[in-house]
Amino acid sequence: MRTVVGTVEDCIDMFEGSAQTRIIPLSPTNLIENPVTYKLVRVAGDGRLVPATDEEIVEVNETGYAYSIRCLSESCPRVSFSVVPTRRNFSSSGLLQSEYVEPYTQEVNTQPEDERLAMIHSLHMLSAPPDANIQLCNETDMFDEDHVHHEPLLQQPIPFSSNVQHGCNVDQSNTVEPTAPPADAQRPDFSLVRGEICLNNLPIKALQETFKATFGRATTVTDKTWLKRRITMGLTNSCNVPTTNLTVKDKKLVENQDKANDAPSSTDHADGHSNASGHSLTEDFSSEERAAKRVRKPTRRYIEELSENDEKQPVVTSKDEKLSEKSEVRSISVSLGKRVTVTRVVSLAGSEIEVPYVSLVRRSCPRENIMALMECHSSCLEAKASSGESNMLHNEVLKSASGPDQKESATSSSNNEEDVLTEVDEDMETENIDSSGNSSDDNNNIGLPTMQGGGLRRKHHRAWTLSEVTQLVEGVAKYGAGKWSEIKKLSFSSHSYRTPVDLKDKWRNLLRTNFAQSPSNIMGSLKKHGSMHIPMQILLQVRELAEKQALVPPNH
DNA sequence: CTTAGGG
DNA sequence: CCCTAAG
């Protein structure tokens, strides 16, 4: 799939739902003056148009669902029209089923030939292999072929387009050359109609639709001016033509040849220094829209890794083309008023579209949410924990001091600690349960994975308290190293945030530190900073257990 | 799902 | 901590 370039003469008709889309066949003049990129959109269940994601494209390919075409240009900002606007028979997935596309094919065939041809071209583009578009694309030099992604997203033509294509073939026998449109008379004076006019002529309803399509959310605003402005801004802010050296500037598509210009070009300036970067749309870009910024966040992994340094991301300005890397997914946090809408920008065949940020939550991590919920309490929890720990330490010290007979052998000391620590731990546990435990048990999906920063947050780092370590050691002593699940179940049931894997990791770390310390250890090599001081006893315990398990690993 | 290991 | 390959 690739970006299709054509011209749209009248965007309004598109929106009226009539399939009287007027697409002027590509005369080079029109092409340059009113370039249009078509993008795949999905018709959601409520009738709104959602940009297609990569997966959906594939899905289209596989299931034969049809997408509507979305027209994107300055002259036609975010105006979208569905292939079958009147049909409401959507599949459960919200995609139009191919069968419903049929009528449209006929509609196409009933259109005047020039229009039909153009439409056929465009539809053809949606599915045809890259090389099939030469007709269209090689007519213009301004589109850099090198940056067109030749992803075989649609290896097979989707049904409706193939249908169209058949019709196309038939028709082309009649209309071979798409000459200048004979529809000059009907055609509005486009020179006067640039950009704004399109929106001006749209009814409020259509504007609202457009708004929906643009921002991914519905609006009840009936103020035409406001809508227009928002749509225009939204479009200008996000519309870029990555496959080309064109840039949206001052609501016009300009060629972007000198490198100095592309940085401040309103499009791909990541990480919102939009105001400082000489934005071309300063006028209306003041309040909310300026807040719209893009946080780089392609993959889950990337998300997490970047979540920590995303602020200092020095803005990858330079190459627009770079940003259009294949399947690059970025996310935009558009804060509209109070709401924070997170969307991601999917680079689709070289053109970027926003799609609502479909939760990329790590599958299977309710604790993520737990953490999110507990985040606010975490500090106090931590404080509590540490205080409890210190108390516990005191207790331990006191106890061991008072009962010197018990502290020699590892077993006795372990018992001793066990008693003491379990007590203290129970306190801590109750604390934890009080503040977080209950919420962590039935919590689950309350917290959104996307937080303020717009990124998935890494699991909050929970320092292991001494009690936890002790419990762990004790659990290992009881059930053996490797029975993490059991240990978790039987000894850590209260600590909801420690997973068996966590236990395993901690144990590994314990062993590590233990072995690291053992050679040169004179009982007192306390790591001053960072991690807590693990009492000697525990260390010894760990060592013993380690040896035990090392000596008899297969044995049980 | 649980473990083990690498990152 | 996270991720993932192996049972």
UniProtKB/TrEMBL annotation:
| Chain intervals with Low complexity compositional bias | 433-447
Q: Name one GO cellular component term.
A: nucleus
| Compositional bias segments (type: Basic and acidic residues) | 301-323
Q: Which SMART domains match?
A: SANT
State the organism of origin: Brassica napus (Rape)
Its protein name is: BnaC06g24140D protein
- Looking at the UniProt entry, the stretches that span the membrane are none
UniProt keyword annotations, A-Z: Nucleus
Region Disordered, annotated ranges: 258-323, 400-455
- Where is the protein localized? Nucleus
